[in-house]
From TrEMBL:
Keywords: Exonuclease, Hydrolase, Nuclease, Nucleus. SUPFAM superfamilies: Ribonuclease H-like. Pfam families: EloA-BP1 (PF15870). This is Exonuclease domain-containing protein. It comes from Monopterus albus (Swamp eel). InterPro entries: REX1-like_exo, REXO1-like_dom, REXO1/3/4-like, Ribonucl_H, RNaseH-like_sf, RNaseH_sf. The keyword Cell inner membrane does not apply. Gene3D superfamilies: Ribonuclease H-like superfamily/Ribonuclease H. CDD domains: REX1_like.
């Protein structure tokens, strides 16, 4: 049997002579011999060789991937950390010069994500944002070795240049209009909130009761309820708690997660279920209080506009702390369309501070020790800076205007322009909007938010929105 196979193979490997080519019968025999030899050789190789499964490889298999050591009682399971580390490595090897450098970069990124996270859910959110950042970095065009520089004419003058015509300015490609000054002001008018929306979202409006008074549409009951934990508590005439009682609350938001058999609602801060004891403890209960104290409000007034009709565009963000009377202003920041800070100051609250709310405001007791600026001083500056025709941009701006005790109608609210899919009372977080639309991570500082960063984010979001809507209209 083996001799026959060798003979057939020999026939297959032998080149046909001129007589064989001219003879149809011999040609048929040669083709038959080649086909038989191919089938037999494949059958023999299948029987003698062992098949190996294909295993995906990286750039190089010379180095072993790093492994995260198991840690007893870790806040994030080791297998989840290892999974994300491997994913980070897969992205890093795409743009790093060496495998060793890619491993170290992925380890540093994963370590940073772990240190910033206090629970598994927070780790997953931060890890996803980091993965987006690495993927965007891997898509950036890097330097290509030994590539000769080419001019635009050289690129166009290829093998098809003789039969193809090109134009530098394509008809379908239009130059983007620069968003500044009167152009930006005119385009933002399309996103202004209506009077009904201002009422629906709880913006302060002028009260018919008299000058300096405001009204807020609030159909709910007026009770002294802690705005953090929901417990009822009593205060005396000067706003102090009658009984000292700790406030046990969750600082995170509620999120619905799909599980086997239905849906589960958990807090984002500690992944605890609804109704579970709070994961944060403060000395006493606090209240919002801004919608109860509707005196000493000021309204922006009309001013003569320049010839181009630009009333001014500003982004605004405020930080607040808890006092005996509720939430009071501690910092205000205003930026212009060029992302430059034109006003930024700490503000001294009128009442005694109960909680500086540093986790979210970023304002500490040391920041307010030496400040002498009051709310009245801030109102005077803003009234000289804004007019009734100025467009103010912010995220849930009604909260800032309540803290400023300022009534204004020309408002663009990013929480309304980018609504939550479930509608009110749900609103999308500014951090989520920036990650989804501009692929940027904000509010990741453990020392609290930065009002200038939040104001700039709102301005950038609206400029992005205007450009995206312009593309659709084309």
């Amino acid at each position: 049997m083996y001799v026959c196979v060798l003979e057939c193979v020999g026939l297959a490997d032998t080149k046909p002579t001129a007589s064989q080519v001219s003879s149809p019968s011999r040609t048929h025999q040669a083709v038959k011999a080649q086909t038989t030899a191919g089938i037999l050789s494949k059958t023999m190789s299948t029987a003698t060789q062992k098949r190996l499964a294909h295993t995906p490889t990286m750039k190089s298999t010379s180095m072993k991937r790093p492994v995260i050591p198991a840690e007893f009682g870790a806040k994030v399971p080791t297998n989840i950390r290892q999974r994300y580390l491997n994913t980070f490595i897969d992205e890093c090897v795409k743009f790093c010069p060496s495998e060793d450098f890619a491993f170290q970069m992925a380890l540093d990124e994963e370590k940073l994500v772990y240190e910033r996270s206090s629970s598994k859910n927070i780790y997953l959110n931060v890890a996803v944002n980091t993965l987006k950042k690495l993927r965007n970095k891997s898509k950036e065009p890097g330097p290509v070795a030994n590539r000769k520089a080419q001019s635009h004419e050289d690129v166009l003058g290829g093998r098809l240049a003789a039969t193809t015509s090109f134009t530098i300015n394509r008809m379908g490609k239009q130059q983007e209009e620069k968003l500044s000054g009167a152009t930006l002001y005119r385009k933002l008018k399309a996103y202004l909130m209506t009077e009904e929306e201002l009422l629906e979202h709880g913006y302060p409006r002028a009260s018919p009761k008299g000058a300096g008074k405001a009204s807020v549409f609030n159909p709910g009951e007026k009770k002294i309820i802690c705005c953090r934990c929901g417990a009822e508590y009593k205060i005396n005439g000067n706003g102090s708690c009658i009984r000292k009682e700790e406030c046990n609350y969750h600082w995170g938001r509620l999120h619905r997660n799909k599980v086997a058999g239905g849906w589960e609602t958990n807090y984002s801060c500690c992944a605890a279920a609804v109704g579970s004891p709070g994961c944060q403890v403060s000395k006493q209960h606090v209240q919002d209080g801004r919608k109860e104290s509707l005196d000493n409000y000021v309204s922006t007034f009309s001013k003569s506009l320049p010839p181009d009709g630009n009333g001014g565009v500003f982004a605004l963000d405020c930080e607040m702390c808890y006092t005996k009377q509720g939430l009071e202003l501690t910092r205000v920041t205003v930026i212009d369309p060029d992302m430059k800070v034109i006003y930024d100051t700490f503000v001294k609250p009128e009442s005694k501070v109960v909680d500086y709310n540093t986790r979210f405001s970023g304002v500490t007791e040391e920041d307010l020790e030496s400040t002498t600026i009051t709310l009245r001083d801030v109102q005077a500056v803003l009234l000289s800076m804004f007019s009734a025709e100025s467009i103010l941009i912010g995220h849930s701006l009604e909260s800032d205007l309540l803290a400023l005790k300022l009534i204004h109608s020309f408002v663009v609210d990013t929480a309304v322009v980018f609504p939550h899919r479930l509608g009110l009372p749900y609103k999308r977080a500014l951090k989520s909007l920036m990650a989804d639309h501009l692929k940027r991570i904000i509010q990741d500082n453990v020392e609290g938010h930065d009002s200038s960063e939040d104001a700039s984010a709102c301005m950038e979001l609206m400029m992005w929105k205007i450009k995206e809507d312009a593309k659709v209209k084309r």
